[in-house]
Fold this sequence. Notes:
It contains 12 helices and 19 strands. It is α/β, with parallel strands linked by helices. Helix 1 packs parallel to helix 11 and helix 6 crosses helix 7 (179-190).
Amino acid sequence: xxxxxxxxxxxxxxxxxxxxxxxxxxxxxxxxxxxxxxxxxxxxxxxxxxxxxxxxxxxxxxxxxxxxxxxxxxxxxxxxxxxxxxxxxxxxxxxxxxxxxxxxxxxxxxxxxxxxxxxxxxxxxxxxxxxxxxxxxxxxxxxxxxxxxxxxxxxxxxxxxxxxxxxxxxxxxxxxxxxxxxxxxxxxxxxxxxxxxxxxxxxxxxxxxxxxxxxxxxxxxxxxxxxxxxxxxxxxxxxxxxxxxxxxxxxxxxxxxxxxxxxxxxxxxxxxxxxxxxxxxxxxxxxxxxxxxxxxxxxxxxxxxxxxxxxxxxxxxxxxxxxxxxxxxxxxxxxxxxxxxxxxxxxxxxxxxxxxxxxxxxxxxxxxxxxxxxxxxxx
Length: 379
Ligand code: NAD
């Protein structure tokens, strides 16, 4: 058998990541596996063409020829319509496909006979941990969010005792303690901030506390009406959406914690739905002048009602960042992890007769959105 993996240059606005690094390519290359990248594909992430050539990757200038020869295509962002049309029948495409937002693209890929694997749909089972791109990218986003917050704050994070007096530590509140939130908590702690975490999944308390942060318990003193619902978790480990009344109650109880914080980092997502609004206009009104919100849920509409996705706004003296594609701002490491996720997902599909798509596989089945002309997502 022989399998050819191709990696085009990303064309989406502002996308600086590449789907495979030279180091990742080196691990995949063998007598049976060849790899080609489009000229300049890794440059923005810090990987020049020569670094790929050094490990035996072919660098191809013609994107049409590259895709036309591929058995497998690794990408970061979903392909454009034209890129989708350039994929040949039977090819396996693996990328962050944003399946909930891309119904038309998915139809188009199915129409072209492409087998499309959406990294977002890789199940969170132990065997698939190395393939989990949502985690690898969220981890980096959580780290970067703290740096963004610290950079916009007119005070330092740690306690500082000087001859001129003592400076008290900044108070950082992280709302949503999943992968991004826990990394944000760990990073804020490393910088010395007085750090608090909150999530509707009560199971998270222990993880927050093990990082040396304090857990915001909305049930405390409310007779259990606070909304840190023990069952607000799905079987897949994700959060369930709260009813509007529950959400309002949650916001009311969170308001005083938000008002005391210097930096609030929000990461709350519910898969396939708009992100919940955790910080309302009124809550921003009550925040201290000079405080900062970093809203990592901008791509899903934002966790703060005043967030403008992709922008930074200053409202009533509070700086509100809602950056998009935060992992893309760390393209070197984001590409390194994403490339490993893609390799771990696709390598087990290589069989004696080439690439085998086993829809009964407990990872490939759930993340395969199109195959043999059929749309499988949402079916
Ligand atoms: P996510 O990105 O979907 O959401 C981020 C966080 O926001 C979650 O912790 C969620 O509970 C929280 N959230 C949602 N609505 C909220 C609200 N109204 N108020 C407060 N918080 C709210 O989640 P994620 O980071 O992808 O992780 C989800 C879970 O999956 C975590 O428990 C994580 O540890 C687990 N996980 C398991 C594996 C594995 O076993 N292979 C891999 C990765 C993650």
